[in-house]
Amino acid sequence: MKPFNRVLQCAALLGFLLATPIKASLADEAPTGFDGLSNGFILQGDYDHDQELFEKRHTVAGGLGPVFNAQSCAECHANPVAGGGSQVSVLRAGTFDGKKFIEPPGGTVIHDRATDASLQSKVADAWNVRTQRLSTNTLGGGYIEAIADETLLKIAKRQPQQSNGEIHGQAVMVDLIEVPGAQRVGRFGWKSQHASLLSFNAEAFRSEMGITNSLFPSENTANGRAVDEFDTMADPENNGWEVALLTEFVRATKAPPRDAALAAGADAVAGEQVFEQTGCGICHTSTITTAPVDTLVNAGTFKVPAALGDKTIHPYSDFLLHDIGSGDGIVQNGGPSSRNKLRTAPLWGLRTRSRLLHDGSALTVQQAVKRHQGEAATVMEQLKALSAVEKQQLFKFLDSL
Ligand code: HEC
Ligand code: HEC
Question: Is 73's C-beta closer than 6 angstroms to any atom of ligand 2?
């Protein structure tokens, strides 16, 4: 057995021994469900009202456009309930000149729709970096936001020890838009480009729907061209109340549940052990505990409430960036070194996704797993060495997520 393999197995065993008592004694399991019910952060009546806003079809009279991608949050975040992911993808592009990544005029998002044909944004032939990004799941986002920076940094620190230095997740410090000058460990989006739900949602409101707001007061552009003459409303088009309620909604969603029947099967139970022993769990972290109740996060602007604090979650992600050879070359908030890295895709809710990897380029779980190289190379060797039965157990486990 190679030393790396031994390190992996010790790490898996240690992880198992440590995880068990932590789960039982200190923290409660976070509620899970695709049931449209509040996780307790807000009353059900408020949840239903916020969900209506999440599903609300915006019009030009309400600030939509002039360039945008869709008319409601739920157009892209819908499966199987409002807040989930979907097959809808967003286009991003730019240029790599051999040394550095250069943003195109107006930023990397290329808006697919416009209220006037003359504003249609497009990828220029000269831009050699192009990608599509699938809409990610937002259910359970409140728990992700409630993870302390130190917890993510601790995971990053232990990864090289678990893998002879091969795996080294990058925690990117990103700006908190709501507190100028303050930063926090990024965790949302394919590039962990935002650290708070308010930051992410305010940008989504502007970038995806073209609705400017107090945190993102300037309009999208059409490939860098100002759209003022087509904009009928003064910016900011929304004073922020709507983004606040959309944020309340995402914070109140339950985490994606396992398929209870599949999860209880003997193969899936054995498969989770295979997942850990193979080293998948070094990046796809199975268990994380959120910060204690009353902890101040987001630079002091959000006090972790009882519904979100001290909760055990099973996201199967470390929320860190890795290069597994699938990178799309786009630089967002993580700096030049993040160009070809992606956030470890959280595997909770995996069974609701028909297209996989950031760009939907894998259509089966097997294909997505096969694409892992780079930092995951040795784990992939371990995978190849598994018996046919162990492999079958591993994929049964993945099917239950
Ligand atoms: C046109 C489709 C589209 C619309 C409309 C849209 N989103 Fe998204 N959303 C995406 C995509 C694509 C991603 C992944 C973005 C990336 O990382 O490049 C995403 C990611 C997110 C995330 C991060 C979740 C995570 O952990 O990765 C949140 C939160 C979110 N969106 C909230 C919203 C809200 C709130 C709205 C409405 C104001 C909205 N989105 C509208 C496509 C959309
Ligand atoms: C070095 C970190 C790392 C290791 C080890 C790793 N993964 Fe991943 N995994 C990632 C990253 C990063 C992505 C996202 C890649 C992308 O979208 O291009 C991903 C994506 C996936 C996806 C696609 C999920 C989706 O929603 O698109 C699956 C399935 C998956 N991994 C399973 C596994 C399994 C099984 C193993 C063990 C054999 C494993 N991974 C090992 C980092 C890792």
Answer: no
Give the ligand 2 atom nearest the CA of 375.
Answer: 1
pLDDT digits (tens, 9 = 90+) for 198-224: 999 999 999 999 999 999 999 999 999
Strands (E), 5-144: 28-29, 67-68, 86-96, 101-102, 109-110, 113-114, 129-135
What distance lies between CA 385 and its chain's CA centroid? 31
Domain assignment of residue 226, given as a range: 3-399
Task: State yes or no: pLDDT of 121 exceeds 80.
Answer: yes
Nearest to 101 by CA among 77, 130, 121: 130
Query: What is the atom index within ligand 1 of the atom nearest the CA of 54?
Result: 37
Residue 310 in contact with ligand 1 by CB distance below 6 A: no
pLDDT confidence of 14, banded at 50, 70, 90? very low
Contact status, residue 156 vs residue 170, Cβ threshold 8 Å: yes
Tell how far the Cα of 7 is from the centroid of ligand 1, in angstroms: 37
Mean pLDDT of the chain: 94
Q: Is 321 in the pocket of ligand 2 (CB under 6 A)?
A: no
Cis amide leading into 80 (omega within 30) = yes
C-beta of 308 in contact with ligand 1 (< 6 A):
no
DSSP letter for 140, please. Answer: T
Count up the domains in the chain and report the number.
1
pLDDT band of residue 239 (cuts 50, 70, 90) is confident
Establish whether residue 208 lines the binding site of ligand 1, counting it when its CB lies within 6 angstroms of any ligand atom: yes
Nearest CA to ligand 1 atom 24: 138
| 167 neighbors 135 (Cβ within 8 angstroms) | no
Is the pLDDT at 2 greater than 90? The verdict is: no
Which residues are within 8 A (CB) of 398 and not within 5 positions of it... i.e. 6 or more apart? 271, 275, 347, 350, 365
Q: What is the Cα–Cα distance from 87 to 363, expressed in whole angstroms?
A: 11
Q: What is the mean pLDDT of residues 214-243?
A: 95
Q: Is 243 in the pocket of ligand 1 (CB under 6 A)?
A: no
Chain Cα centroid distance, residue 150: 19
324 close to ligand 2 (CB < 6 Angstrom): yes
Cα–Cα distance list, 182 to 10, 154, 185, 301 (Å)? 38, 21, 11, 11
Q: What is the mean pLDDT of residues 368-392?
A: 98
Among 5-14, 224-233, 235-244, 328-337, whose mean pLDDT is lowest? 5-14
